[in-house]
Amino acid sequence: MAKPPRKPKLAVWKFASCDGCQLSLLDCEDELLAVAGAVEIAYFPEATRAVLKGPYDVSLVEGSVTTQHDAERLLEVRRQSRRVITIGACATAGGIQALRNFKDVVGFTSVVYAHPEFIETLATSTPISAHVEVDYELRGCPIDKHQLLEVLTAFLNGRRPNIPAHSVCVDCKARGTVCVLVRGAAACLGPVTHAGCGAICPAYNRGCYGCFGPKETPNPVSLAPRLVDAGMDKTALHRVYRTFNPVADAFKKESERHGA
Amino acid sequence: MSYHPSVIGLDGLAALIEALSGDGFRVLGPTVRDDAIVYDDIAGVDDLPAGWTDEQDGGRYRLKRRDDKALFGYAVGPHAWKRFLHPPLLRLWRAEPDAAGMTLTAAAEPDERFAFFGVRSCELHAIAIQDKVFLQGPYVDPHYKARREGVFLVAVNCGTAGGTCFCASMNTGPKATAGFDLALTEFPGEFLVEPGSDAGAALLARLPQRAATAADIERARAVSERTAASMGRHMQADGVHDLLLDNLEHKRWDDVAARCLSCGNCTQVCPTCFCTAVSDVNDLSGATERTRRWDSCFSVDFSYIHGGSVRPSPRSRYRQWMTHKLASWEDQFGTSGCVGCGRCITWCPVGIDITEEVRAIRGE
User: What does pTM read for this prediction?
Assistant: First the structure.
């Protein structure tokens, strides 16, 4: 009898991050057995202490690069991985910790730590794609677990993930949510933000915070006057694009238009 | 055959909703939710937006109190009836692997029948346009057909024109002329009811009513006339087909592209836009599902063919949408794709106004 085909080896790596995105994988309660059946979990410290040696078929990479040590570790992850999929805002756009990029990190460490001399860190937080070639970037802070399963399934089957890059508005309209911006309930980044969360915030009368980063061909310059109508001042406009995806190109540029 | 109009009171209107429910219809109509008048299930007259109206302008919608108790004293809101006839997300089929290979199961079509209550004339025209697209071409859409057949349509002749309405320009209103079972015109406390089908006439016969007088009919005519004269927007529709197709390189396209967010809102709220994306997605169990969801010509993937998107720029996408809506739709389906409901103006987050764009290209 022929040997059953080897199951693809999956590794889950953490860089500078909160772990929320990789925990989305464990959060796939109903689908977790199917995941475990489809792949061999070779490296996933949040889930198991068992470690299998590389190379790995698929690596999920969470977090951004904030230390020289991580920058070197990442090169090794890439060397050991057939496919690298980055998951979440930190890995795809530097994350909230990329706010350091606009300031002096030494100033921060001197205020935060009792012994800043022990802190060895880079001046910037950068996405994984700034260091190594990435096969796919999954957005979100945190990522959506259904999208994670979709990307994983797509890669295991050698097909393109079904992850639309359109605005959050399209998902609001599909849900039947009444536009919070047009009806004057909230300032909302939905028209410039990548869908994927299921348009949760507007369904609860809140504006979109842009957790998934810029949509394809975003136009925040045109949206700005409407955000002002909805109550945002220059400071608010500067800050609203500096949250989870502050170094994503379109958000970075728009933030800089409203302040340094 | 011609039908005789009647006049009903609030009791008659309540009896109408009750009769529709009693006949097994799922009655959908206007109701207040999230500071807007949306379409949802209604159980009776109490669910209707009594005493509410709306203020609409480019990128702006506000729900306001009226100083009377009118039930239909507002224009069309964020929802169009297409969300019931042509749902935003449909599962088409599922294929499960089994010993024999695989088993394919088509998704069941709903067995409910809809009664749409409070359909405006522009919306009747929009439904007629989607009927043309989905039912009257060489390929009938079975999903639309299953939902559309047996719909009972209660129209309302608008007594108030919205700030972004321009049905009078598009010859699609404000008075309903065809495509309904019953049409209401609201007077304070009572309604002129005109049957438009045998089913409508039969249902009207079951309601408490009085025969309409010549004065009632004149009053209703005056309501529609007043509404037609108070449209918030105007579009010169004559010749717009050639105007747009002769001006594909007009500088106005660059101007509108600078404002356009390419967010797709206009297409999602438009009652005639019908485009969908169909995806086959497998899961880890080996099963595959085919789904269909509303798509938009404002997304890059919409025009993706081998090698890239045909319309990578927002300029090309806006131009595609507007020239299709107002020009090439005519070549394709024999009517304009625009019914003048104004939703694309109101629900555009930056208030891009299709009537203004036409004027600009005309050089006015």
Answer: 0.96
